[in-house]
Design a protein that fits this description.
Blueprint lengths: L2 H20 L1 H12 L12 H6 L8 H18 L7 H19 L27 H15 L6 H38 L6 E6 L6 E8 L2 E8 L10 E4 L12 H9 L4 E6 L2 E6 L3 E2 L2 E2 L2 E8 L2 E9 L6 H11 L5
Helix pairs in contact: 1-2, 1-5, 1-6, 1-7, 2-5, 4-5, 6-7
């Protein structure tokens, strides 16, 4: 999730753990802990694919976070020494603020390596977009309300719990919505007698009403959109060809194998300006994707692997406007 959401969730954990004991410093400490795992974004890696696929690995591992939580608690006890208390006082706050960060990321489409180093499998629930105000606002309102109340007031806890409860209820809603969307998509694929291999559903930006499906098939992939407000049997699957034979000569090239693994097979391949470009189909809208990587060049009739680099594709604001309009414009 985005940084604002993780800060709000961490601050809520801090308030619930120590708010009535130490006041607003608890929310501040929780906010700090809540954003710590994402600091791995500043680590320089050898190439672009490594940079994106090693994010949410060790820094989001439940094992690593459990191990470092006492250390972080000790740092907090020193940082907020005027409050008093040793690391044992701070440990529950640090543990829950750190632990909830990757658990929330688990519900996004990006992928979170929860069990690193035992496994680097990127778990991905894909039930909520990385920025969703319906999830974030209850947390923000709940924790800010708590901060305006007196330390000894029972309302502090009630406000924070209410914010967390509402946001959690919304998260449960997104899981149920995904199960419904998956059923609708599979039924439509069967009714339209389309041959397919695998399917991914994920919510459109900023909401959980409109959903996108990527359906991998022979020679390319389908893209479809469906709103929770639509009538049944209104799905249109648009086919987009790609050419995965382009990566056959370089299949052992690490960025190629890493992207195929990291995306769970939901990637496209195309030629662009004399290069082979792989796109993560999970994040974006056809033809604009967030993560595109140049992995090889064509030279003298051969496919030559290169150090992977990011390829930007310009985003047309009209695409987002069309999607947002589609949310509350059901197809009948």
């Amino acid at each position: 999730m985005d940084s604002v959401t993780q800060i709000a969730l961490g601050a809520t954990m801090g308030e619930l753990a120590l708010g009535r004991k130490i006041g607003g410093r608890a929310a501040l400490a929780g906010a700090i802990c809540g954003t710590l795992p994402d600091l791995d974004s500043f680590i320089p890696y050898a190439d672009a694919v490594a940079t994106v696929t090693f994010h949410r690995s060790f820094s989001h591992s439940l094992f690593i976070l459990a191990l470092i939580s006492p250390v972080v608690a000790w740092v907090m006890s020193k940082l907020f020494r005027r409050v008093g208390g040793n690391w044992q006082l701070w440990w529950p706050l640090c543990f829950f603020a750190l632990f909830t960060h990757p658990l929330l990321d688990l519900f996004t489409v990006y992928g979170t390596q929860l069990f690193w180093p035992i496994s680097d499998y990127p778990f991905s629930g894909s039930t909520i977009f990385i920025i969703d105000p319906a999830y974030t606002l209850p947390l923000v309102v709940g924790v800010l309300t708590a901060l305006f109340l007196k330390r000894e007031s029972e309302g502090r806890q009630i406000s924070a719990w209410l914010g967390l409860g509402l946001s959690s209820a919304y998260l449960v809603w997104t899981v149920g919505a995904k199960f419904h969307i998956e059923r609708v998509m599979r039924e439509e694929l069967s009714d339209q007698e389309l041959a397919w291999q695998s399917i991914l559903t994920t919510p459109a930006p900023f909401n959980s009403i409109l959903w996108r499906a990527v359906v991998m098939a022979e020679g390319g992939y389908y893209e479809a959109w469906y709103s929770m407000l639509d009538e049944p049997h209104t799905l249109e699957f648009s086919f987009h060809a790609d050419d995965k034979t382009l990566i056959e000569p370089i299949w052992r090239h690490w960025p190629v194998q890493r992207l195929a693994y990291f995306t769970h097979g939901f990637f496209g391949v195309r030629e662009m300006n004399g290069s082979v470009v792989m796109s993560d189909l999970r994040m974006g809208v056809e033809p604009t994707y967030t993560f595109n990587y140049r992995v090889a060049d064509f030279k003298d009739g051969a496919t030559v692997p290169v150090v992977s680099t990011r390829v930007e594709t310009p985003w047309d604001p009209r695409q987002l406007n069309a999607l947002l309009a589609r949310v509350f414009n059901p197809v009948r």
